Amino acid sequence: MSDLLPLAILLTSLGVAPVILALPDHWSRLRTALNLGAATIKVALVAWLSMAVASGADFGVGIAIAPGLSLELQADALSVLFLALSSVLWLLTTIYAVGYLEGGTDRSRFFGFFSLCVASTVGIAMAGNLFTFLVFFELLTLATWPLVVHRGSAEAHRAGRIYLIYTLGGGLALTLGTIWLYALAGDVPFTPRGVLGDLPETHRASVTAIFVLLIAGVGVKAALVPLHGWLPVSMVAPAPVSALLHAVAVVKSGAYGIMRIVYDVYGVDTVQALGLALPLAALAALTILWGSIRALRQDDLKKRLAYSTVSQVSYITLGVALISPLAAIGGLAHLIHQGIMKITLFLAAGNFAEARGVKTVSAMDGMGRLMPGTTLAFTIGALGMIGIPPLAGFVSKWYLGAGGLDVGQPAVIALLAGSSLLNAAYFLPILQRAWFRPPPEDVVPKRGIGWMLVAPPAVTAALVVAAGLLANAPFSPLGWTRFIVSLEYL
Amino acid sequence: MIAVPIWLVPAVPLALLVAFCVPVLRPGVRSLVPIAPLAGLLAALADPVPAPARIDWLMLGTEFAMTDLGRPFVAFTAALWSLAGWQALRLLRDDPARDRFFACMLMAMAGNLGLLVAQDIASFYAFFAAMSLSSWGLVLHGMGAAQRFAGRVYIGFAIAGEVVLFAGLSLASFATGDTRLAATAGPEVPALATALMAAGLLVKLGAVPLHLWLPLAHAAAPAPASAVLSGAMLKAGLFGLMTILPLGTEAEPGAAATLAAIALAGLILAPCLGLLHGDPKAVLAYSSVGQMSLMALGLAAALAAPAAWPAIAPALVLLAAHHAFAKAALFLGVPTIWATARGPARSAVLVLLALPALALAGMPATSGATAKAALKTGLDGAADGWLVWLEPALFAASLGTALLMIRALILLAGAAPKPDVAADVSLPWLAMSGLVVAGPWLVPDPPVTDAAAGLSDLAPIVVAVALAVGVAVVLRGARLSVATMPPGEVLSLVARRPEPEPVLALSAPVRRGHALVVRRSRPLTPRPERGALAILFVAAALAFAMAVTGPETTHEPETPMSDTL
Amino acid sequence: MTTDLVYHVAGAGLTGLALWRLATCRDALRRIMALNVLAIGIAMVLLASGFDAATGRTDPVPQAFALTGIVVLVSVTAALLALAERIGGRSND
Amino acid sequence: MTEASLIVSLPLLAAVVTAASARVARPVGLIATAANAALAILLARRVLAEGAQVTHLGGWEAPLGIAFETDGLAAVMILMAAIVGVAVAVQASDDRTPRSATDPGAFWPLWLATLGAMNALFLSADLFNLYVTFEILGLAAVGLTALTGTRRALRAAFDYLSAGLAGSLLLLLGVALAYAAAGQVDLSVVPALTESAQGRISLALIFAGLAVKAALFPLHFWMPAAHSSAAPVASALLSALVVKAAIYVALRLSLDGGIGAEPLRVAMAAAGAGAMLWGSWHALRADRLKLLVAHSTVAQVGLISLALGVAPGAADSTLWHAAVLLMLSHAFAKAAMFLAVGRIAEELGHDRISGLNREELRPGAAEFAFAVAAVSLIGLPPTAGFVGKWVLIEGLIDRDAWIWVALVFAGTVLSAAYLSRVVSRCLRGGPHVAPGARRPQWRAGDVAALGLAVSALLLGLGSALPFALLEITVT
Amino acid sequence: MIAFDIVLTLGLLACAAMALTLRDRTASIAAFVVAGLLIALSWVRLAAPDVALAEAAIGAGVTGALFLRSARRIGPITGGPVGGMSASIAAALGAGGLSAALFWAFAGTSGPVPYPPLVAANLEASGVTNPVTAVLLNFRAWDTLLEIAVLAVALALVVMLGPAPVVPRALGELVLPFARIVVPLAILVAGHLLWQGATAPGGAFQAGAVLAGGMLALVLAGIGPAGERIVRGALLLGLAGLAVFVGAALAAEGLTGRFLGYPAGAEKAWIIAIEASLTLSIAATLCLLFTGPVRRPHQ
C-alpha cells in the first residue's frame, strides 16, 4: 500500500471530479459531502506521506506510455512541501466556496473542475519526471479555464480568452522544450542535483535554448514580468477561484516548475556553469519591483492583490535563482508563506465583496468597524506580506537576504528593502482606511455571510502567524525547507 | 522578591491583547491595562535578576535576558506605561473607538518591553516593528485630518526606519554568522551594517534630520499616548543605539563626529523651532528632540573616547530615566489642565507642573541636575579636541529647555478648559509628579556631584527667565503677537492636496494687533515658516561643516556664522 | 508485338479522352459516362499488357481483374445513376 | 475458424441479413458490431501472443492467391474500427433520433458493409484486392452520406461517389501499371517497383488515387460537403474511419519501401502542411458546427500525412508510429465530436455556432464530450494526440527538421483557436441564465460520445498497447 | 490482322469521343453502346473471351439500359461548357500528356510474367479447366467474393435511395412476341454459359447478365407481375448470392482449415454450386438495379 500512496492522493480528487461533474445542480448536500470528504482524506493522506518521507521512505509508481516515455508519480521532500500547501488550502477554500456559491448556477460544473484543478496541482507536485510534470501542467490549464469563465459574462470570457492564450502559449513552449530535451537526453527523471550528465558540454547551445524554453513555459504560470498579463485580467473569476488558483495553485505550480527545472533537471551547478542563474535572478528582481509598482495604482482591490502576487511569487524565483542554500531555504519557505498569506487576503477580499459589495480600495472606509474579523485577517495577511517580523513573510525575506549576501550580491538586500517599502506603500493605505476611517453613513449589509466565509480566512491568518512565530519548530514550513535544501545542496 | 520569569515581561500585554479580541472579556481586560506593565517592573526590580530564557521553537530561536543595561530601562518604561495606561482609561472613558486605542496600546507596550529584554536579532526586530506599527494606531486615534497627516508622516518614517534597520541587522548577522543581538556590536561587523542600523534607530530617537514626524505625532496623539511616545519609545531608540554601537571597544572618530554634528544641530534647532509653536504638546515634543540630541551627544562622546564609556553609560541611563519621568509628568499634566477651570485650581496645577519643568531645565537638587552633573563628569574624562565644545553645548541645551518650558507653561496657563474631560485624570499625573520629585533618591547609586556644579546649573535658568521677561515686555509694548507655525515645518510645504486647515487640539490664543511679521497689504498668505526654514538650513550647514572638518582641524578660524550665536 | 501495342494506344487514348472529359463537363450523366470510358480504357491497357503475342494467349489473372472491374463498374454506375436521378429529379441546378 | 477469416466474413453476412429485413436490422446490427469488437480484441491478443501471421486464402501461395497479413498495424486499425463502430452503433440504436427520411433501417447494412470492407482492407496484402475493398468502402460510405435524404446530402453523396470512383480508377491504373512492370500485384512487389521508372509511375498513380480517397489537401474538394451534410452517425464513421483507410494503405506501401521515392514523400509532407493550414483557416471561418468539424478533419488528415511524409520509410520506426497514434486519437476524438455535434444539433434544433448558447438550455453531457474530444484533437496532454505529437516532434528534432516542427505547432495553435470558438460558447450564460433552465437529459448518444471522448483521453495513458502492437508490424 | 485491330481501335476511339461529346443524350448513349460492343470485339482480339462475353452483356447491355432509363428521367443537358476555352485546353494538354506517359510506360514494360505458368501448374488442382474461372473462383476467390459484396452494397444503396420504379408503357405490339422468344432463349443460354464456364469461356457473371436481360425483357413487356412480394423476393435473391458465397467460404474453412479452400476432389462441385447461386443473384440484382424497388409507402 505504501507505494500506492501517491496514487491514492491523486485519485482522491481526480476520482471525485467526474462524479461531481455528473451530479445535477440541486444535489448540493451530496456534492458538499463529496467535496469535503475528499479534501479531508487528502489532507490525512498527505500528513501520513509527509511523516513517511520525513523518516526517509520514498515512493514511486508509474506506467509506461510509449517506448522511452512513462508517467511517474514520486513523493520526495520537495513534492511534500507543495502537496501540504495545496491540500490544506484546498480544504479551506472548498469550505469557503460552498458558502460563497450558495444559490449560484452551474455549481456541479464549478466543483467538478475545482477538484480537477487540485488533482492536477497534486499531480504536478508528485510528478516524477519532466513528462509527467508537463502532462499535469497542461491539465491544470484546461481545468482552470472553465473556472475563470465560470460567471459566463462577456468580460469573463474576454479574460478567459486572454488566460487561455497566455497559458496555452506557455504550454507550447514548455512542450517544445521538454520534447527537445527528451530527444537529446532520453527520459528526464527528477533526481536531486540534475540529470543532464555531459549534455551541457556537448550541446551547450541547445541546452541553453531548452532552458529558456522551459523557463518561459513555466514562467507564464509563475507570472514572470513579460508573461504576467493574464493574472490581473483573470481576477474577474469568483473569489474562491482567484484565492486558491491564482494565488496558490496555478501561480505556485509555475514557481514549483522553476524549482524542479533548476534543481532536479539541470542541477544547481549546471545552471551556474551555463551562466543562466544571473539573468533569471535579474528577471525575478524586475518582476518583484514591476509587480509592486503596478499594484500601487490599482484601485480595484483584487487587481491590487493580483499584482502583489506577481511580485511576491518572484521572491521564490529569486530564491531559486540565487544559487545558495540560504536563498533556497528562503525561496522554498516563501512558497508556503506567500501561499497562506495571499489566500488570506483573497478570501478576505471575497468576503468584503460578498457581504458589503466593497470591491475597490476607495470603498474600504470603516471596514474595521463593520467587519472586524475579516479585516483583522486581512491586516495579518497584509502585514505578513510587508515582512513585519512576527509574521511569516519576515522569515522568508530574512533568508532571502542572507542568501543574497552568501552569493555576494548585497543588491538583494536593497531589493528586499525596496520591495518591502513598496508593499507597505500599497497595503498600509488600505489598513488605514479600514481601521482609522469612519464607515460611510449609507452602508447597508448586502448579504449576511455565514461561518463558512468567515472561518477560512481566520484559519489561514492563524497559519500565517504560526508559520512566523513557530518558524524554528521541526514541522514548520521553514524546518521542512531546511530538510529539502539539505538534500539539494549537499 | 518573587522570581518573575523573564519571558513574562512581553507575554502579559500580549496575552491581554489576545483576550482583548474576545468581546465579552473586553471590559475586564480594559481595566487590567495599567497593571500589564507591572510584570516588567517586578522583573526589573527583582533582586536576583530573572534567569535568561531560551525558546528554540519561537521565531528563529528567541532568547530573553534582563541585562544590567536593560534593567533600568525596563523599570522606568514599565512605570511610565502603567501610569499612562491608567490616565488613558480615565481620559478615553466615553470615546467610542477606545477599544481600538487600547489594542494598539497593549501591542505597543508589549513591543516596547519586549525589545528591552530580547537578546536575539529576530525577536528584537519583531518587537521593534510591533511597537512602531501599533503606535501608528495611537497617532491616528483622533481620526481627524491632522491625525491623518501626522499618521502618514509617522508611518512613512517608521517603515523607512524599520526597513533600513532590517537591512543593517541582516548584514550584521550574516557577517558575524550568529543571530544574537550582542554580536551586532562585534568588531567584524562591517561599517555599512552599523551605519544602517544606527540610521534606523536614529529615526526612532528623533535625531534632527529625521525628527520631522515627532512633533506632528505628539501633537496629534492623545496626551497619554504622547507621554508614552516621548517618554518610553524614544528611549527604545537610545537603548538600541547603546546595544549596536561598538562603544567602549575602539575609537570611531568619523562616526563620533557625525553623531556629534547631528546632536549639536538638534540641541540648537529644537528650542528655536519649539518657540514658534502654539500647541504646548508640540513645544514639549521639541524639548524632547533637544533632550534626545543631548543623549546622542553623550553617545558621540563615548564613541570618540571609548575609555570614558564606563562613566558616560550610567549618566546616559540616568538622563534617560529622568527625562522620561519629567516629560511624562508634563504630558500627563496637559489633560489635568483641561480638566481644571481657570482660577486657583489651575494655578496650583501650574505650580506642580513647574517642578518637572525645572527638573528638565537642570534645577539643582532635582533629578535633572544630578543627571546633567553625571553626564558632565563622564564627559570630562574625554576632554580632547572638539570635546572641549561640550561645555557650551550643555549650557545651550539647558537654556533652550528652560525657554521651551516657560513657553509651554505660558501656553498651558492660557489653555481653555474642556468640560468633557473627567476630573480624576489628574491622579496618574500626581503619581508621576511624585516620582519626578522623588527622582534623585530613587537612583540606586547617584554619581557624586560637587557643590560648585550646583551654582553653574542655576545660571541657564536665570538667563532664560530674564530673556523671557524681556521678550514679554517687548511684545506687549509693540502689541505684536507671535504667529504660530503649522506643524511639520518642512513637510507642510510639500503637502500635495490642500489639506483642510488642521484643527489643532488646542486653539492658539487670539489677540488683536500685529504678528511678529507685519502682514503686508497684499493678501499674501503669511509665511512664518520660511523664516524658520532659513534658521534650519543655517544650523544644518554649521553642523555639517563641523563634522567634515573633524577634530584635528578645529583650530582653524571658524566660519563667521558660529560667532553670531 | 504490334497487336498489344495497338491496344495500348487504344487504352491510353480512351483514358486520356475520359480524363479530359471529366475535367470539362458538369452534367451528371456525362461525367458517369466518362468514368465508364475511363474504366474501359484501364481494362484495355491491363489486358493488353497481359497479352502474350508469341502464344496468342492472355494471362488469365488480368482477365479476372478485368471481369471484376466490369462488374464493379456496373454496380457503381447503377448507384451513381440512382443518385443522379434523385438529385436531377428534384430540380435542375 | 481463425479470427481473421471470421472478422472479415461476419460483418458481410450481418449486412446481408440487415439489408434483407428492416425489422430485425437494429438488434442484428448491434450484435454483429459487438461480436466484431470481440473478434478484434481476440485478434489483437493473438498477434501480441504469437506475432504476425500470414494466412493464404484458399491455401494458394502469395503471387497466385491472396494473403491476409495480420500484423500489429492491421490489428491496431481493426481495433480502432471496432471500438469506434461500437460507439456509433450505440448512438444509431437510439431509435428516437430521427433517422433518414428514406428508410429507418438503412443505416445498419451500410455500416456493416463498411466495417467488413475495412477489416478486409486492413488485412489484405494484395494491391488489386485493396482496389476492390476500396470500392465496397466507397459505395457504403456514399450510402451513409446519402442516409438523411436531404438534397444537400444527396448532392454531396454524388460528388463523393464520383470522386471516389475516379480515385479508385486511378488506383486501378496504378495496379495495372504495377502488373505490367513487375508482373504480379501482391504487396511484396512494391520494393521492386521502386527500381524501374514504370514502377515509380505506378506508385505515383496509386498514391494519387489514395490521396483522393483520403481527401488530402489538393484533392479534398468533395469531403467537407459530404461530411457536414451527412447524418451525425454517418459523418462520424466517414471522418473517423473511412478517411483513415486510404492513409493506412499509403502507410502500408511506405512501410514496404513504396514511399522511398523522394518526390512522393515531399509531396505528402507538403500536402499535409497545406491541408493543416487550409483546413484550419476554413474551420476558423465556418459558421456551422458540422462544417467546422469537417474542415478540422481535413486539417488533421494533413497532420497525419505530414507525419508519413517526413518518415523516411520503415527504417526509422518511431515516426510512423506517431502517424498511427495520431490516426487512432483522431479516429476516437473525431467520432466523439461528430456524435456530440449530432446530439447538440438535436437538442438545439440547429448547429449554428453563434446560436450555441440558449438561455433555457444549459450545456449538457454532449458539450462536455465535445470539449474533451477537442482537447484530444488539439493534442494537449494526457491524450493520445499529445503522445502522437510528442513522438512525431521528437523524431523531427532528431532529424533537425525544424520547419516541420514549426508547422506541427502552428497546426496545434490553429486547432486550439477554432475549437475554443465552440467550447467557449458552450460556457456562456452567466447572470441572464433563465431560472427554469433545464439540462438535456442523458441519451444513448451522450453515452456514446462521452465514452469515445474519454477513451481518446485514456488512450493517451494506455498508449503502451498500440505501441507494443506496432512493434510486431511486418516491414 | 493488324489492319483489323487498327480499324477496330479507330472505330472504338471515334465512338467513345462521340459518346462523350454529343449534346443529345440518346445519341450519346447509342454511341456508348456501340463503343461497348466494339470493345467486346477487341477483348476477343486480345484472346480474352470471358471478358468479351461479360463486356457485351453487362458493359454494353445493362449499362446502356441504365443510362437510357436515367436519361429519360433527368432530361436534356442544360448549361454550356464549363470554364471556357482556356480550361478545356489545359485539360486537354494534361490528359494528352498523361495518356502519352501511360502509353510509354505500358509499351515499354517487358517484365517477368509469373502468373501463366503458376496458373497452368495449379490448374488441375483447382477443379476446373477454364483458367479464368479457376482464378476467379479458386485462386483469387476472395476478390470475387468482395466483388459480389460490391454488387450487394450497390443494391442496398439503390434500394435505400428508392428511385421511381420503371412503369412499363405499352411499347407497341411487337414487344410481347419478342419477349416470348427471348425469355426462354435467355434462360437456355444462361444455363449453358453457367455449365460451360468450368471448361470454356463463360461463367456466373456472363450467365447472370444474360438471365437479367431475359428478366428485363419480361418486365419491359409488362408481362411479369410487378407486385411487392415478387420485388422483395428478387431483393432477397439478390442478397442471397453474397450470403451463400460467404457461407461456402466459412464451410470450406470448417472442412479444410483453409478459408475459401474447397475440399480436395470436390472443388468442381463446390465451384459449380457457388456459380449457380451467383448467377441467380446477379440476375436478380441487375434486374432490380434497373427497375428499382417498389415505391416505399411513406415516399
From TrEMBL, chain B:
Entry keyword set: Cell membrane, Membrane, Oxidoreductase, Transmembrane, Transmembrane helix
Membrane-topology descriptor: Multi-pass membrane protein
Pfam families, per the entry: Proton_antipo_M (PF00361)
Domain NADH:quinone oxidoreductase/Mrp antiporter transmembrane: 118-338
Membrane is among the record's keywords: yes
Gene name as annotated: hyfB
Organism: Roseivivax jejudonensis
Biological process (GO), any one: ATP synthesis coupled electron transport
Protein name as annotated: Hydrogenase-4 component B
The keyword Ribonucleoprotein belongs to this UniProt entry's keyword annotation: no
PANTHER family: NA(+)_H(+) ANTIPORTER SUBUNIT D1, NADH DEHYDROGENASE
Lineage: Bacteria, Pseudomonadati, Pseudomonadota, Alphaproteobacteria, Rhodobacterales
From TrEMBL, chain C:
Coiled-coil portions: none
GO cellular component: membrane
Top-rank lineage group of the source organism: Bacteria
Gene3D superfamilies: 1.10.287.3510
Record keywords, A-Z: Membrane, Transmembrane, Transmembrane helix
InterPro entries linked: NUOK/Mnh_C1-like
Topological category with respect to the lipid bilayer: Multi-pass membrane protein
Pfam families xref list: Oxidored_q2
Location in the cell: Membrane
Main location: membrane
Bilayer-crossing regions: 6-23, 32-51, 63-84
Protein name: Putative monovalent cation/H+ antiporter subunit C
TrEMBL record, chain D:
Regions crossing the membrane: 73-93, 105-122, 128-148, 160-181, 201-223, 230-251, 263-284, 291-313, 319-341, 361-381, 401-419, 447-469
Gene Ontology annotations for the cellular component aspect, listed alphabetically: plasma membrane
Main location: membrane
Keywords: Cell membrane, Membrane, Transmembrane, Transmembrane helix
Molecular-function GO term, any one: NADH dehydrogenase (ubiquinone) activity
Membrane topology designation: Multi-pass membrane protein
Transmembrane found in the keyword field: yes
Coiled-coil residue windows: none
NADH:quinone oxidoreductase/Mrp antiporter transmembrane domain: residues covered: 124-414
Localization (cell): Cell membrane; Membrane
InterPro entries noted in UniProt: CPA3_Na-H_Antiporter_D, NADH_UbQ_OxRdtase, ND/Mrp_TM
Pfam families, per database record: Proton_antipo_M
Domain of life according to the entry: Bacteria
One example of a Gene Ontology biological process annotation: ATP synthesis coupled electron transport
Function of the molecule: NDH-1 shuttles electrons from NADH, via FMN and iron-sulfur (Fe-S) centers, to quinones in the respiratory chain. The immediate electron acceptor for the enzyme in this species is believed to be ubiquinone. Couples the redox reaction to proton translocation (for every two electrons transferred, four hydrogen ions are translocated across the cytoplasmic membrane), and thus conserves the redox energy in a proton gradient.
Family under the similarity heading: Belongs to the CPA3 antiporters (TC 2.A.63) subunit D family.
The name this protein goes by in its record: Na(+)/H(+) antiporter subunit D
Gene: mrpD_1
TrEMBL record, chain E:
Keyword flag Cell membrane: yes
Subcellular location field: Cell membrane
Major localization class: membrane
MrpA C-terminal/MbhD domain: residues covered: 11-74
This protein's record includes keyword Aminoacyl-tRNA synthetase: no
Keywords (A to Z) from UniProt: Cell membrane, Membrane, Transmembrane, Transmembrane helix
Domain Na+/H+ antiporter MnhB subunit-related protein: 178-270
InterPro entries linked to this entry: CPA3_antiporter_subunitB, MnhB, MrpA_C/MbhD
Coiled-coil regions listed in the entry: none
Bilayer-crossing regions: 6-22, 29-46, 52-70, 82-107, 145-166, 178-198, 204-223, 230-250, 270-291
Pfam families to which the protein is assigned, alphabetical: MbhD, MnhB
Membrane topology term: Multi-pass membrane protein
Gene Ontology cellular-component terms listed: plasma membrane
Family as reported in the entry's similarity comment: Belongs to the CPA3 antiporters (TC 2.A.63) subunit B family.
Protein name: Putative monovalent cation/H+ antiporter subunit B
Source organism (scientific name): Roseivivax jejudonensis
